[in-house]
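User: Please predict the structure of the protein below. I'd like the answer in structure-token form so I can feed it into my own downstream comparison script.

Assistant: Understood. Taking the following sequence of 411 residues as input:
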Amino acid sequence: MEAPKVGFYYHPQLVDEKRVRRAHELGKPPPPTDLSLARTAHTYGYPKIYSLDHRRTEWDDTDPDAVRLQLKLIEDMGADFIAINSFAGYKSGKPYVESEKALEVISQEIQHTSKLKFYTTMCMRLQRAVLPIDEPGQDEPNRYFDLSLDTLNYMMEYSAQHWDNPHYLHVNNKPVVGIYGLTSNAVNNITYSLPQIVSPAIGTWMKATGQIKFKKNPYLIGIVDVPLMVPILEQRGFDLITTMCGLPDFFNDDYFLPDMTDIFPNKKPVPEEYSELLRKRSAELSLFAQVIKGGEHACHVIGSISLGWNTRARAAHPDNYDFTGYPYSPFVKDPTPEDLHRAFLAMGLYIHAVARLRFPYQYTDPLVHVFAFNEFSEALSPIPRVKDDGGIDTALSATLTKEFAQLKQVF
């Protein structure tokens, strides 16, 4: 059995020029970036200032130098690939791309690495609003792309521009394409839009589009937020189903997260222990093993590894919430190298016990995703941080370097 490939979800960090210009016109301060939000967020004692080169603490992922430094860090840790969040689809009947330049820069700079690969993760909805949200109680309205065949086809067209890049990730000679935002709402609406003459399967349609338009049959990854979507997607034409985020609980029996004691005086906010977060992720692996059918027409199901959720950037602006607490986030405390080791160990055991035995028909090298490399405003990132004494904290990247190597050695 060959070793798994391990990679990071990568969310390009951009300065929203339109919002910056608009704020300047109104005489207001520019909107915050994820980096600046992380600095002012409610956290649990972690260093909050990230640094690429012991100097740079603010950057944009359209800057080739900043991208080059990040790719080197990723490669030095022993990662095999990055999954780049991309936002392209149809919006109100017209093609829409959130930002092309970051993907262009990354696809160019990655060619200077020795063997690091990338693939595009297309999303059924726009990325979250730039925080803080402009008005109290304002949700993120109209986030979905058109849930139509136009969006599916355009996603494949946008991704296919990069398939011939020598550093684009392929599995079994197939270009890898990830699809995120596969909520029940998105899946149901798109399924209804599929022609009745074809199988009502999103994955089947997208593969056919790739084959007909671009003469390549993609290796399709369905990325879900919640494990309950796994049995719904398993027979819909995907090659792999995995997860993103690994969120802590927003609600549980004893607490209402985050702090909304003014509305619910009996519900107290509390951070979630990292060990508890990993226990839930391990339980998801057990659930996957139970619900997946396996067999000739099934797909792989491999969860992701969460590094943590250690800041509350959304809670840094107490006027911005609605009845459910949105856009606040809970946070996770006290991650340890021992906990992270247990997470990687559980993943290795799962791949051995499930992927090898349940999928003999189409076994491929397993892909293991880690969340996340640079979700600064919420997730724990392995990018070095500046400590209060001016030193640099590289503990997480060092731990991951060790765990990546060990996961591959056991196969």
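That's the full token string. The longest helix spans residues 337-358.
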